[in-house]
Design brief:
The structure holds two protein chains of two kinds.
Chain A lengths: L27 H15 L5 H13 L2 H13 L1 H9 L1 H7 L8 E6 L4 E6 L8 H4 L9 H6 L4 H7 L9 E6 L4 E6 L11 H5 L4 H5 L11
Parallel strand pairs in A: 1-4, 2-3
Helix pairs in contact in A: 3-4, 4-5
Chain B lengths: L17 H15 L5 H10 L2 H6 L2 H15 L5 H14 L9
Classes of the chains: A alpha/beta, B mainly alpha.
Chain lengths: 216, 100
């Protein structure tokens, strides 16, 4: 989304610039959203409650869900085997609503680093991680992730050894990927809950690594 | 788009506005109720042409694609949409005031 705020004195509690919302001049597409929503309700296809519930459901999804899955995989080898076999079923087992999507977990190892992109648009493991960050939807990320992933990762501050093979996974509407990052060294003695706190959103997209234990 | 060259990746994020969350909810719910498929949305997005990707925002494109599919499915007519959008405009100059 075009985004031209550079006034960092006005940040929201989430650290983002406040975005004009209900008090800015009404745009053409906002009028369209209101009209479409009202027509759907009037014609009996949707209720206002369904719409509100769907928004709440989406708001409740966050990278913490994915982090819990990763921490479980790090500590429970049988779960990890099930996750690699069928990530949708394994995460449903933890109570997450994955919907009808095929969810595929891809594992980072000493030699292989995985990253995910949707070159078409914005397909993302949203049922597990919530809505994608804006950069994931930019033309720049989508174009370059498959062309020069190493340079893209460098922009995210991630410099991988030349010997590490990078695999880029292009998502589709019904095939979503999540990266299972490698467990950081020095975390042998910490609990599953503490491990989950090391798992960042970007580490599950592949544009970052989990935090080191001393950084939490 | 994949494989083209492009400039640096803009890392700034934003908090989703209410109207954007509503677009997302409408798209998910209409899909779940079988009013259209994700392929139908994809086709509508592709049909907008490259210009739309340069000039419209992400949620602008998604509400346009949702609307296109609902009209094609016969949920409402183009005329009904046009009339309602005019009525919405008459309610007030901001998103908040334009709610019923």
């Amino acid at each position: 989304m075009p985004h031209d705020h550079h006034d960092h004195d006005h940040l929201s509690p989430s650290g983002h610039p406040y975005r004009q919302d209900n008090d800015a001049p009404l745009t053409y597409f906002q009028r369209m959203e209101i009209a479409v929503r009202e027509l759907l309700i009037e014609k009996g296809h949707l209720t206002p409650a369904e719409i509100a519930t769907q928004i709440d459901t989406m708001d409740a999804r966050s990278p913490a869900n994915g982090a819990a899955v990763v921490a479980r995989a790090w500590t429970d080898p049988a779960f990890k085997a099930r996750l690699m076999e069928n990530a949708g079923d394994a995460t449903r087992e933890m109570g997450f609503d994955i919907g009808p999507l095929h969810l595929v977990a891809v594992e980072n190892t000493a030699d292989i680093h995985n990253m995910i992109v949707c070159t078409l648009c914005s397909c993302y493991p949203r049922n597990l991680l919530g809505l994608p960050p804006d950069w994931y939807k930019t033309r720049a990320y989508r174009s370059r992730a498959v062309r020069e992933p190493r340079a893209v990762l460098r922009e995210f501050g991630l410099e991988l050894p030349e010997t590490t093979r990078i695999r880029v996974h292009d998502s589709t509407a019904d095939m979503r990927y999540i990266v299972l990052p490698a467990r950081p060294p020095g975390t042998e003695d910490i609990t599953e809950a503490a491990l989950a706190k090391l798992v960042t959103r970007d580490s599950m997209i592949g544009t970052g690594l989990p935090l080191a234990p001393e950084n939490t | 788009m994949g494989g083209r060259s492009a400039g640096p990746i803009a890392m700034e994020g934003h908090d989703f506005a209410l109207w954007e969350k509503r677009v997302d909810a409408l798209m998910v719910l209409c899909g779940a109720k079988g009013l259209f498929t994700v392929d139908g949305l994809r086709r509508a997005l592709e049909d907008m042409g490259e210009d739309a990707f340069e000039t419209l925002s992400y949620y602008d494109r998604w509400i346009a694609a949702t609307n296109q599919n609902l009209i094609e499915a016969g949920v409402y007519t183009l005329e009904e949409l046009g009339q309602r959008m005019e009525e919405v405009a008459r309610r007030g100059p901001t998103y908040g005031e334009a709610q019923e």
